[in-house]
Design goal:
mainly alpha, 0% strand, globular
Length: 93
């Protein structure tokens, strides 16, 4: 059980670093003030970048990171991380 907890902690450590960097990057974005224009803005970003989280998960898995570490980085359970990625792969075809 300690090994599992260590793996979760490792992912969580990387999550905190990523959160700081993401906050700095998001501060540079400037969505439109109109609510519907903001919806379209964020949707365009999603279309442009796809699902970068799941693409990063695929890279982490290919690099040999276990689901426990990935779950820690996503702040979720191992099962949830695995299921979310499976759903993404199924949708992608």
């Amino acid at each position: 059980m300690t090994d599992f907890r260590d793996r979760l902690d490792e992912g969580a450590k990387h999550r905190e670093e990523a959160r700081r960097r993401a906050a700095a990057d998001l501060a540079k974005l400037s969505p439109p003030a109109h609510p519907l224009a903001a919806v379209a803005y964020w949707d365009c970003l999603r279309e442009e970048f796809g699902d970068p989280v799941q693409e990063a998960v695929a890279v982490a898995r290919e690099a040999g990171h276990p689901w426990a570490e990935i779950a820690g980085a996503l702040n979720t359970s191992t099962e949830s991380a695995r299921n979310r990625h499976k759903y993404y792969l199924d949708r992608r075809g």
